[in-house]
Amino acid sequence: MANPEDISFGYLLNDVTLLFRKHFDRRAVKFGLTRAQWRATKMLYHREGLRQTELAEFLEMEPIAVGRVIDRLQAAGFVERRPDPKDRRAWRLYTTAQASGVIDDMERIAYELRRECTAGVTYEELSQAMDVMTRIKENLQALDTSEAPAESVAKQG
After folding, report:
1. Total-model pTM
2. Contacts with 28 (C-beta within 8 Å, 6 or more apart), sequence order
């Protein structure tokens, strides 16, 4: 009897991710935004006023990396930092009118790429695949929490 662990799927997932990124980047280059910058801009557009640490959590990125992305977005005129009225040490992040101007175009690029790469795939098939990938992701995230104590004990010993 075959088991799920007998199917090597990691390389395929990686290939799909790399190809999707390559095609997205080719189409989005005219806007001067990297994929990471686009993700941050889109998140801030839909959740104005996040702190950098909150944005990092939503994007599942390290705060320092998000800081560099925000620095570049701010320099390019897509994002602005405003003082947090409740905490003088903190900043809140907001998109600018310039960012709003490219949001629809970037959404259209993403939509068209999804449409093209899912040709011949039904909604039900993709939905089921997404459910499976979500469970795999959750299993991998659970490994982070279950492995952490063992690693810290090993370092102490």
Report:
1. 0.71
2. 35, 38, 106, 109
**Residue 93: which H helix or E strand, with range?**
strand 87-95
Residue percentage of the chain with pLDDT more than 70: 93
* Number of CB atoms found within 10 A of residue 84's CB: 13
Cβ-based neighbours of 35, under 8 Å, separated by 6 or more: 21, 24, 25, 28
Closest CA relative to residue 55, chosen from 101, 90, 92: 92
**Taking 90 as the threshold, does the pLDDT of residue 33 lie above it?**
no
CA triple 111-114-116, angle to 5 deg: 110
Residues 6+ apart with CB under 8 A from 56: 62, 63, 65, 66
pLDDT at 135: 95
